[in-house]
Structures are given as structure tokens and as C-alpha cells.
Amino acid sequence: MLDIAKDIQSLSAFKRNTPGLLKRMRESGHPVVLTINGKAEIVVQDASAYQKLLDQLDELQGLAGIKRGLADVDTGRVTSVDDFEKEFRKKHRIPRRSH
Q: 25 and which of 46, 57, 85, 94 could share a cystine (Cβ 3.0–4.6 Å)?
């Protein structure tokens, strides 16, 4: 969670105390919001915390896809493997396999 008192800094303050703020970011895992002329402009984040955020996003997107798939099954929006194969081959002009 963002701590407004500590995690919002002016760009000038960040430039003056870069090592200290980087250390705090690594220890807390929180990003720092940098302001220019009092307006939030840039977010700086430790690389490992950013990677963790990306991993969490990837996992959530996967879960959302699973939920959509389950909703499709619940509403009957399903296709048999045979029908899918026929449509896929037709769409991509792939000839049928001969056995």
C-alpha cells in the first residue's frame, strides 16, 4: 500500500536523495510517486517489486480467462473438438489428414 507521507516525493527531492529513496523502495517494496510542479508525473519502482506485480497481473489474467471459459460452459457456448478442427482447417486452408 502506498504511504502518502513517504512514497510521494518531488522529482527534485528524488534527485537529491536517490540512494536513500532507492534503499527505501527495496526495503518496503513500494513504488515512489514523483511529482513535477506538485503534480504526480512518474512512478519509480524497484525491479523485483515490479516483476512481482507483473507476475500477479499475469496470474489474475489467467484466472479471468478460466472464469470466462467456465461461464461459456455454463451458458452452453461450447464447440466439440471435431467441429473446432473442421472450422480451423477451413479457416486456415489446411487439408484433412489422411489415415
A: 46
